[in-house]
Amino acid sequence: MVVRRRLAEGGFTDVLGELVRCAPDALVVRTRRGEVLVPTEEIALGKLVPPAPAPRRPRGT
User: Fold this and answer.
1) Which of 14, 27, 51, 59 lies at a 20 to 30 A Cα distance from 44?
2) What is the pLDDT of residues 34-59, one digit of tens each?
3) SS3 for 4-51, per residue?
4) What is the pLDDT of residue 61?
5) Which domain does 43 fall in, by range?
6) Can you give the pTM of this predicted structure?
7) CA distance linking residue 35 with residue 10, whole number of Å
């Protein structure tokens, strides 16, 4: 899933990964760098996205 969150200094950033926990006050998303807590008041939008494709094998080997 992807969650777009509002930054305190203005603007937005995206958190991309697997939804681990959903509570009334926050979401927890497991990203490549670890788990990220996103408070609900910072969430601008969220949506499901398909998983990343498997890596391709190199050609010619």
Assistant:
1) 51
2) 999 999 999 999 999 988 888 888 88
3) EEECCCCCEEEEECEEEEEECCEEEEEECCEEEEEEHHHEEEEECCCC
4) 60
5) 2-47
6) 0.80
7) 23
